[in-house]
Amino acid sequence: MRKLKCLLILLLVIVTPFLLSACKSAESPNSTQDKKVTINFFNQKPEITTQYQKLIKMYEKKHPNVSVQLTTSGQGGGAAALQSKFSSGEAPDIIMLGGLPEIDRYKEHLLTLKNMSATKNTLPRLISGGMTEKHRLVGIPVDLEAYGWVINKEVFQKAGIDPNRIHNYAEFVSAVQKIDAQKDKLRLQGVFGFNGADTNSITSMSAQFTSDYYKNDQVKAFDSKKFPWTKEERMKQYLQLVKQYSVKPILSVKYDESIQDLLFNGKVAMIPQGNWVIPTLDGLQKGWVQQKMEMLPYYVKDDGSDELLTGSSWYLGLTKDHPSHEKAAKDFINWMYNSKEAQDVIINEMRFVPATKDFDIKRLSDDVSKEIYEVGISKDAVTPIHKQYPNGFANEVIGPIVQRYLVGKTTWENLKKVISNQYKQLKTVQSGQ
């Protein structure tokens, strides 16, 4: 019996470690799967918060071990709120970035995205907008946006004008004058609903006259220390046209009012905006965009080749501040850009035009979006560069000085002097030179 007991004890000593090891191995996959990861997503576009939350719920349902926390801050306060996150040591895992100045600010925190599946089909001319100065890809374009004149087709039709027959600046001016001559009959407050209260809209308008100079090289635009005046005369002509034919007082017209009241209700013929107004207009009346909206470019070249400027104002970047979150953040972004279910939300609810190659245009729900995609993938497409202006330039320099010009408080020569000097000064300071 003593020998038998000793033998049993010996067997237990030998076998037990193996049993424990086997159990641990069997439990290992489940313990990894049970480990929850929370990734933080910083969004600077408040108007699509609801849709992002829907995408997050869809993803979390399929990936119960991943939680995505969305923080939204925009309407001019996004950049400061994002800076505060980094300063307090709470860097998000996914961040929405507005142009190369913001990318440059956080470049040491950003992961290289070149090998992610979400970046494989990005439109080539938009890639430079998500790069650091060393041509390291750190941002993926959120969508494809178009900049130009958003018009109310019904007003044009009542005025006897076919917008498709406008091909140059002279014909555009003729249409403006024809509409103005019928202003009382058409019950218009003005031909234009120029939202002069919004410095950001003024800044994006300026891109119409500065972008072609850089030939779609966003890094070159970001590095430039000079504001390009190659289209100075046309810029001046457009601002004078706006001064004469827009709703007065011009500096009292706000962004929301120009879209939701003036354009929607047919009180003006057009406003200077882009396709980001589509969800708002169709939200006010289903089908309004398809029935009443078109877009016209700014006619700058006068050779019949002018098209809408198309590019992306926002890029998504991933930070490396939390290494244990990197895989989950990449997986979420890849799903958002590649899965059909996510794309359906982005196209049909956000009403975004994807900034990707080989997209099936039939999936877009309105003709304006289809036109934007066709323009955006053409070989002659031009990317707007106002997002590469130095930090503070929009709200502190070009916006205020153009506002002063629109109400006759400064001359064109002084406007040029202020813009040129301040642009150079801000670029020099921010580049550290």
SSE diagram, text form:
Elements: H1 2-34, E1 37-43, H2 49-62, E2 66-72, H3 78-87, E3 94-97, H4 100-105, E4 140-141, E5 145-152, H5 153-158, H6 169-181, H7 183-186, H8 199-206, H9 218-223, H10 232-245, H11 255-263, E6 270-274, H12 278-284, H13 288-292, E7 293-296, E8 309-311, E9 315-318, H14 326-338, H15 340-348, H16 367-376, H17 393-406, H18 412-430
Parallel strand pairs: 1-2, 1-3
Antiparallel strand pairs: 3-9, 4-9, 5-6, 5-7, 5-8
Helix pairs in contact: 8-17, 17-18
Pfam families: SBP_bac_1
Protein name: ABC-type sugar transport system, periplasmic component
Keywords: Cell membrane, Lipoprotein, Membrane, Palmitate, Signal, Sugar transport, Transport
Describe the structure.
Strands 2-1-3-9-4 form a five-stranded mixed sheet. The relative contact order is 0.15. Helices cover 46% and strands 10% of the residues. The protein has 433 residues and is an alpha+beta fold. It has helices spanning 2-34, 49-62, 78-87, 100-105, 153-158, 169-181, 183-186, 199-206, 218-223, 232-245, 255-263, 278-284, 288-292, 326-338, 340-348, 367-376, 393-406, 412-430, and strands at residues 37-43, 66-72, 94-97, 140-141, 145-152, 270-274, 293-296, 309-311, 315-318. The chain folds into two domains: 38-144 and 312-358, Periplasmic binding protein-like II (D-Maltodextrin-Binding Protein, domain 2, 3-Layer(aba) Sandwich); 146-310 and 383-430, D-Maltodextrin-Binding Protein, domain 2 (3-Layer(aba) Sandwich). Helix 2 (49-62) links the parallel strand 1 (37-43) and strand 2 (66-72). The protein is built from 18 helices and nine strands. The radius of gyration is 27 Å and the shape is globular. The protein starts with a helix and ends with a helix.
